[in-house]
Write a structure and sequence with these properties.
alpha+beta, Alpha-Beta Plaits, four-stranded antiparallel β-sheet, about 35% strand
């Protein structure tokens, strides 16, 4: 796996009230990932970018809602999420500066 590909796998973290509660209870962090990302790619990308140990990865795809735009029917884009479980004692702090 090339490092260039791994840097492109993670689109961004999901920072919401629900994902914060999950992070406190189960030591999981939620990320939006590219549509063709695999579990091994997500694991390697998180370990490379944040220098933490990943225990497991769960991936799901949320289908886009069907919406009307004026008189036209359309749909929002699908979103692929990854829930990454970190090892005990590991944490990712998104508020600190990345070097």
């Amino acid at each position: 796996m090339s490092q260039e590909r791994l840097y492109k796998v993670l689109v961004g973290p999901i920072v919401s009230e629900k994902s914060t509660m999950i992070a406190e209870k189960a030591n999981q962090i939620a990320f939006v990932v590219v549509p063709d990302a695999t579990k091994t790619e997500v694991k390697q990308a998180v370990e490379l970018c944040f220098k933490v140990q990943v225990v497991s990865v769960q991936i799901l795809t949320l289908k886009g809602k069907k919406k009307r735009f004026g008189r036209y029917n359309g749909a929002r884009s699908n979103v692929r999420k990854a829930y990454v479980t970190l090892a005990a004692g590991q944490d990712i702090n998104f508020s600190q500066e990345v070097k």
